[in-house]
Amino acid sequence: MGGFTGGVRRDNRERLDGQRTADRQCQRQRVSLLRFHLQTQVHAAESKRRRRTQRFLDDGLTAADTARSASRKVHRNRLQTQPLGPDRTSRSMNSSPHGSHASIDILEELQLIAAQNLEKLDIHKYYEVVRELGKGTYGKVDLVVHKIRGTKMALKFLRKRTTKLKSFLREYSVSLYLSPCPFIINMYGIAFETDDYYVFAQEYAVAGDLFDIIPPQVGLTETVAKRCVHQVAIALDYLHCKKLVHRDIKPENILIFDKECRKVKLSDFGMTRRAGSPVKRVSGTIPYTAPELCDPCRREGFCVDHSTDVWAFGVLLFCMLTGNFPWEKAMPGDAFYEEFARWQRRRSGAVPSQWRRFTDDALRMFRRLLSIEQERRCSVKEVFGYFNHGWMLDAENGNGGGAGVPPLDISLTSSEEDVLVDRLKQQSLSPVCMATKGNMVMDTHYSSSMSTNSSPSSTGSYERVNRENNERGRLLVTTPIEICV
Ligand SMILES: Nc1ncnc2c1ncn2[C@@H]1O[C@H](COP(=O)(O)OP(=O)(O)OP(=O)(O)O)[C@@H](O)[C@H]1O
């Protein structure tokens, strides 16, 4: 019995040992399988990343899709992983006084993605530079053709010397974020750097910008202007709904695809900030700058607000319809502005001379858009209610500068008259007559280290100024550059 029992025990032990060894082998196999699986996954993810980066470089159109789907994915993930709750609410409140948490998180994440994918690139390897499309304060925009796809694109170059990486990423991400709107310039999802520049790609607007097609002192026809205004208003409303403020609305930033303005898109989101962000004024004003931002006595900072876009939009409308600026700056001391402000505050019943070409309906619209008190300014959406009304008294005449336009009846000081004469002399340099952009206009009144690329005058001239090449004269007006505090 004992021998039998002992034999059984031995057998059992051997069986158990064998089983254990088999288990161990099996476990080892499983571990190595798992390792292999993990390695394959890592490898796949790595090569997917490499392929995607390569596609970014090789194939503009695919890259656009990739970027858009990345943006959509970020949005989806955020919605899935962040249910509304006390934590999220407090975070949003901290981020923005206007509670614009949706756009905030997406914008931050888009910036992160862009930063992770930013690679150094030899531009000539992938793009053939056709010509320069424009120059701005911080860089230039070139028309290029993608060497492999043959796609025409506009590459925006921001000088590293004057642009922080953060600012570049912000402009790029905001542009990408807003690009689904059909009235905002489309993006290709391509961003890279060279030794001297940060660069991103956007769709090429074949007809240039709005500034080029506004005939000085004449303006666009009411039909064309309305068509353009309608599209810009939709773009601006889209932006405002996302709790963003453009802060640089002007004709140079409205890109056009045909001279009749059938297709128009808003661009240049370099100054765009979240509504409610604190900023402080550093220097300068342009005719589009709202009066509250022009006040030199105001020392405290500003809160970014939609109403400043609405003001600029109102000035833009005036420029489009007349080919003139309503004033040089919305400040006391500017005779044209003062006359307007008196009428606007109902201290004078007389419609200012510059404004007498408009119908009562159009004047009502301007009164709402250009309210001196920013809290009384309407939303940009309100212009939609005015499209069925006539805007110009001489609309049938195609806004011809002569007939119907009342003469200026503001008494000018002699120095103002000199400036006026100077400007009239410069009319041959107007963008409509110029084959090349960038000719300078002399002006004795304004000079600054920064400039805008258009110059104002309520007295007739309507010029674009080259920001870089100022050897022929002084710069006309300064750009409102504000920095976040
Ligand atoms: N996608 C485009 N297609 C065609 N032309 C363009 C495009 N983007 C920009 N431009 C031209 O280049 C000019 C300068 O571009 P942009 O306004 O983006 O530069 P910026 O440095 O931001 O200028 P700013 O000094 O006004 O801020 C525009 O006014 C326009 O004439």
TrEMBL record:
Chain positions covered by the region annotation Disordered: 1-24, 44-100, 445-468
Pfam family, one: Pkinase
Leader sequence segment: none
Protein kinase domain mapped to chain residues: 127-392
GO cellular component: cytoplasm
Enzyme Commission designation: 2.7.11.1
BP GO annotations: regulation of intracellular signal transduction
Main location: cytoplasm
Low complexity: bias regions: 447-463
Top-rank EC class of the record's enzyme: transferase
Entry keyword set: ATP-binding, Cytoplasm, Kinase, Nucleotide-binding, Serine/threonine-protein kinase, Transferase
Name of the protein in its database record: Serine/threonine-protein kinase SBK1
Lineage: Eukaryota, Metazoa, Chordata, Craniata, Vertebrata
